[in-house]
Amino acid sequence: MGMTIIEKILSNHSDKDKLKPGDITDVIIDARVARDFGGANVVKNIQAYNLGIDDPGKTLFTFDCNPTGSDQKYAVNQQICRIFARNEGIRVYDINAGIGTHLLIDEGYVYPGATAISTDSHANILGAVGAFGQGMGDKDIAAAWDKGKVWFKVPPSVKLILNGTLPGNIYAKDIVLNLLNRFGANTLLGYSVELYGDCVENMGIGDRITISSMATEMGAIIILFPPNNEVISYCTERTSADFESLYADQDAEYEKTYEVDVSEFKPMLSKPGKPHDTINIDDEKGTKIDSAFIGSCTNGRIDDMWAAARVLKNRKVAPGVVLKIVPSTDKVWKQCLNEGIIDIFKNAGALVSNAGCAGCAAGQVGQNGPGEITISTGNRNFPGKQGKGSVYLASPAVVAASAVAGYITHENDIPDQPALFTPGEKKQEAEIYRQEKDTGKRPEVLKGRCWLIKKDNIDTDMIFHNRYLSITDINEMGQYAFDNLQGYEEFARKARKGDIIITGKNFGSGSSRQQAVDCFVSLGVQAVIAESFGAIYERNAINAAFPVLTYENMDNLNLKNDDTIELNLVNGDIKNLRTGDSDQLHPFSEVQMKIYHDGGLL
User: Can you spell out the DSSP letters for 328-358?
Assistant: First the structure.
């Protein structure tokens, strides 16, 4: 049996000739990156555990979360990274450079068949060029900087074939929003997805980046594009590496194959709160907006700037509407300047900021206030992600058209006169933490009170909101656990040491933040049991020696809130001590148990 693309990439970077789904192996990492919000914690881990740097030439900092340096705590973190980089000979792509994942491609660090990790949950954007990219937490990054490799479990693969001809008014953002409408946030959870079809073969790098960057929102490990001639040529011009593009074998084994007719795709929106809650734009057409945003790693390339400029040329942003535009990299920004696109944006009344992640990271333009309705080209619109308002997701052309109209609309249906607001229309509604080494044997049987939280897709912003990301002292983190999860805002106050959380699918989806694990450690919560976990969250928990386990079905337990349960990490047995009923969880893997007994990855 042959291998899929992900299996080939990982086997080429391991000591195994052939890998299959479920295999766990050490993977050599070609590009090892820390961003400004995670970088300081990586440095602290390196220093606290006396780790080294395996290869400074493959080790990078990218300051893309707060490229304006406007937040004091971000500025502190950035300076910690700069000083460390000077001493270790590490390259810093500072606040003038742009989004790290884009720089990895444009600067030649990543190419077809390469591997890369970053403290960025959208590092799987690198699947756009047929490379393996993964977002990981600060412990993983520190380990990779020290050893040049990290452990990884080979995911199963899915083949997704896009048949038919795309309608003329469909952009790459519409493609991925249509796919989210079809697959949701769970169907592809944990899979490596390979994308095929005539329309796929003809896609340029910008379109591929847009689609790959939202693999995280689909729950996938990565969306991999087989490299076409444009991708190969683009990467060849930018790297000195002698690479070989990798393609799946004819007899590669896929766990599932899906065929989708793209001729039926419609221009789409994601409704506020959930990227996968997508609808036809016509269903929301006419909805008044307060602001609009064009940028992010999903839609900040020059193709996106061209699309926005075409709509905005000789037009004005509607009175009272704020349009913010952030190119993905400084090279894109300069190209916009040289081609007169910046003039088009400014003449239209837009705010243009320097390159970076912008609103997604809560560190730059793109935030909104209570009651504010924003239409954005970003990849996420979780509650609170870009502020206190509501965020729709759409393509750059739709966002630009809506900014001119003052309400959600198509680029081919912009009114001669924009919608205006009327008075009264809207009313406003640390210190380094070093965990001491645990010298005692850690328990393999846990007993505690259970919290039943019957929700799917609890993302990391609900667990530990991004407004607290500057906190590095684990002792301060517990008080913020779940304070952005509706109905559980008082969780931290009511939780007791030894509690165990039981929840639904895709727990911990979203960002790569370690704090979403550490806040429970801070409170003394013993474990989280879920039907499935976001891939990065699961890694972060395992690496922190925090028990996380999955189940298929636990109806036999007849659980109620506050029941005391007992669970065995070795064999997966779980028992309701109130009723005596028992069931089965998936037990710890060998790697998870070793890290658990070691007290953590580091």
Answer: SBHHHHHHHHHTTHHHHHHHHT-EE--SS-G
Strand partners, 309: none
Residue type, 264: E
CA distance 477 to 435: 14
Domain ranges of the chain: 5-264, 268-405, 445-598
Q: What is 268-405's CATH topology? A: Aconitase; domain 3 (3.30.499)
pLDDT score recorded for residue 427: 54
Q: Taking the CA of residue 324 as centre, how many other CA atoms within 13 Å lie in the half-sphere pointing to its CB?
A: 26
3-state helix, strand, coil in the chain (%, to 5): 30, 20, 50
Instruction: Write the CB contacts of 51 (distance below 8 Å, at least 6 apart in sequence).
Output: 45, 142, 143, 145, 146, 602
CB 152 within 8 Å of CB 128 = no
CA distance 381 to 384: 8
5-264 carries CATH number 3.30.499.10: yes
Which two tokens mark 286? 């006419």
Q: State pLDDT tens for residues 458-494.
A: 999 999 998 888 788 899 999 999 999 999 999 999 9
Q: Is 555 helix (H, G, I), strand (E, B) or coil?
A: helix
Q: What is the total residue count of the chain?
A: 602
Neighbours of 201 (CB within 10 A): 13
Closest CA to 225 of 149, 134, 159: 159
Q: Name 279's bridge partners.
A: 269
Residue whose C-alpha is closest to residue 151's, from 293, 1, 25 = 25
Are residues 452 and 530 in contact, defined by beta-carbon separation less than 8 angstroms?
no
Locate tokens 């210190």: which residue? 431
Task: Please name the amino acid found at residue 299.
Answer: N
The answer regarding whether domain 445-598 maps to CATH 3.30.390.10 reads: no
How far apart CA 450 and CA 527 sit, in angstroms, is 10
Q: How far from 301 is each of 209, 304, 308, 514, CA to CA, in Å?
A: 9, 5, 11, 29
Integer Cα distance of 387 and 468 in angstroms: 13
What is the distance between the alpha carbons of residues 521 and 319, in angstroms, rounded to a whole number?
49
- State the Cα–Cα distance between residues 358 and 565, nearest whole angstrom: 44
304 pLDDT above the threshold of 70: yes
The mean pLDDT of the chain is: 93
Q: In a 3-state reduction of DSSP, which class is residue 475?
A: helix
pLDDT per residue as tens digits for the range 409-438? 999 999 999 999 887 766 544 344 444 555
Question: What are the structure tokens assigned to 421, written together?
Answer: 């607001």
Dist CA 317 CA 329 (whole Å)? 24
Pairing between β-strand 564-568 and β-strand 445-453 as defined by DSSP bridges: antiparallel
Q: How far apart are CA 119 and CA 538, in angstroms?
A: 15
What is the value of pTM for the model shown? 0.83
Q: Do domains 5-264 and 268-405 have the same CATH topology?
A: yes
